[in-house]
């Protein structure tokens, strides 16, 4: 189905999801409306203008001590020293022109096969993965927190079981089938040693939520076709 944002067609195949494609176009149009961007600007100028929109119109307060302590208590596994995971993956890459639904269908089918026959993982990685690790059967070695993109890290470290994970991991690179082979839990760090890191993690999550809410508000004032963005008509959204 064609995606239209205020009458402008969006090229969904350039994005991991139709929602991201539509949100990007909404923010681009908002930058044009603010006079910060020409309607036919080059892609690099579009990204700069969108960053300006988010920087000037999405405000995230710094978390206080109490909020940081609560966040730390709720996410203890994140704040360990020496925590390592041995993992493998198969990347089905999303490139311009790729049909995202078709690629997801292929990835889901392969995931189902490997959940039933995990011994085929290395063979499928060598023949199907778009990552250089495919030549090694998908081996990524031992990974620590901060070594991968956030979505991948969350799948590896947030209480994931051993073996082939039951769900695809989607990142900006594409769809990943992931196998966790070993966990080394590490040692829990006290709050006082990680206060700044906790504050940064909490600030980042608050910023993500604030951007989501901001997009919902401007989506509530837009005409969308072919995509749902959970639009809100009021800025007082939760």
UniProtKB/TrEMBL annotation:
<dbReference type="InterPro" id="IPR050245">
    <property type="entry name" value="PrsA_foldase"/>
</dbReference>
<dbReference type="InterPro" id="IPR000297">
    <property type="entry name" value="PPIase_PpiC"/>
</dbReference>
<dbReference type="GO" id="GO:0016853">
    <property type="term" value="F:isomerase activity"/>
</dbReference>
<feature type="domain" description="PpiC">
    <location>
        <begin position="82"/>
        <end position="182"/>
    </location>
</feature>
<keyword id="KW-0413">Isomerase</keyword>
<dbReference type="Pfam" id="PF00639">
    <property type="entry name" value="Rotamase"/>
</dbReference>
<protein>
    <recommendedName>
        <fullName>peptidylprolyl isomerase</fullName>
        <ecNumber>5.2.1.8</ecNumber>
    </recommendedName>
</protein>
<dbReference type="InterPro" id="IPR046357">
    <property type="entry name" value="PPIase_dom_sf"/>
</dbReference>
<comment type="similarity">
    <text>Belongs to the PpiC/parvulin rotamase family.</text>
</comment>
<keyword id="KW-0697">Rotamase</keyword>
């Amino acid at each position: 189905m064609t995606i239209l944002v205020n009458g402008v067609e969006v090229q969904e195949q350039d994005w991991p999801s139709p929602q991201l494609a539509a949100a990007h176009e909404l923010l681009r149009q908002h930058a044009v409306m603010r006079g910060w961007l020409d309607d036919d600007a080059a892609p690099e100028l579009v990204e700069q203008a969108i960053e300006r929109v988010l920087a000037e119109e999405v405000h995230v307060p710094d978390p206080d001590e109490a909020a940081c302590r609560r966040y730390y208590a709720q996410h203890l596994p994140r704040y360990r020293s020496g925590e390592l995971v041995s993992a493998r993956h198969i990347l089905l890459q999303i490139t311009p022109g790729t049909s995202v639904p078709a690629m997801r269908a292929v990835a889901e089918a392969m995931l189902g096969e490997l959940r039933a026959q995990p011994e085929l993982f290395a063979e499928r990685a060598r023949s199907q993965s778009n990552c250089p690790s495919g030549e090694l059967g998908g081996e990524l070695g031992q990974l620590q927190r901060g070594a991968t993109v956030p979505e991948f890290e969350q799948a590896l470290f947030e209480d994931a079981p051993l073996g082939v994970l039951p769900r695809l991991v989607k990142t900006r690179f594409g769809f990943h089938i992931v196998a966790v082979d070993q966990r080394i839990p590490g040692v829990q760090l006290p709050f006082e040693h990680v206060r700044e890191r906790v504050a940064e993690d909490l600030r980042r999550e608050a910023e993500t939520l604030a951007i989501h809410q901001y997009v919902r508000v401007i989506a509530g004032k837009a005409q969308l076709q072919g995509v749902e963005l959970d639009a809100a008509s009021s800025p007082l959204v939760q």
